[in-house]
Amino acid sequence: MLVKTTPDWLALTVEQRIEAFRTQVVPAIEERTKGVRSRFYDTEFYSARVTDVWVWEAVDHEAYQLLVDALRETPFWDRWFEVAEILVGVENGYARNYGVDAVASVAT
User: Fold this and answer.
1) pTM here?
2) Burial class of 24 by CB neighbour count within 10 A (0 to 12, 13 to 18, 19+)
3) Do the beta carbons of residue 38 and residue 55 sit within 8 Å?
4) Residues 84 and 3 sit within 8 Å (Cβ to Cβ)
5) Which domain of life is it from (predicted)?
6) Residue 104 and residue 71: Cα distance in Å, rounded?
7) DSSP 3-state assignment of 7?
8) Between the CA of residue 83 and those of 39, 52, 76, 104, what are the distances in Å?
9) CB-based burial of residue 95 (10 Å sphere; 0-12 exposed, 13-18 middle, 19+ buried)?
10) pLDDT tens figures, 5-61
11) More confident residue, 80 or 105
12) Maximum distance among all alpha carbons in the chain?
């Protein structure tokens, strides 16, 4: 999920941001769906179009759909962040589809 922070979000202190996410976003997600987790990447120093990338992993498509529904019911969606684009993918989907081992690089 490619997002851009809004002036409302930037007006909050770091402590207020953490508290807002813990009290308004996380509970909404936990009430609506199970089997999702997120990772967060800052990109504002590399991109003017988006400021952050939120990678959401879900156990299935229904869990992901419920996640998006939950986010839309919180200030995350369109108040604190503008959702610029949603890119959905399946990790190593080609390998599963063709019954081959995934080709990936390995850090040495």
Assistant:
1) 0.84
2) middle
3) yes
4) yes
5) Bacteria
6) 32
7) helix
8) 16, 10, 9, 29
9) middle
10) 999 999 999 999 999 999 999 999 999 999 999 999 999 999 889 999 999 999 999
11) 80
12) 50
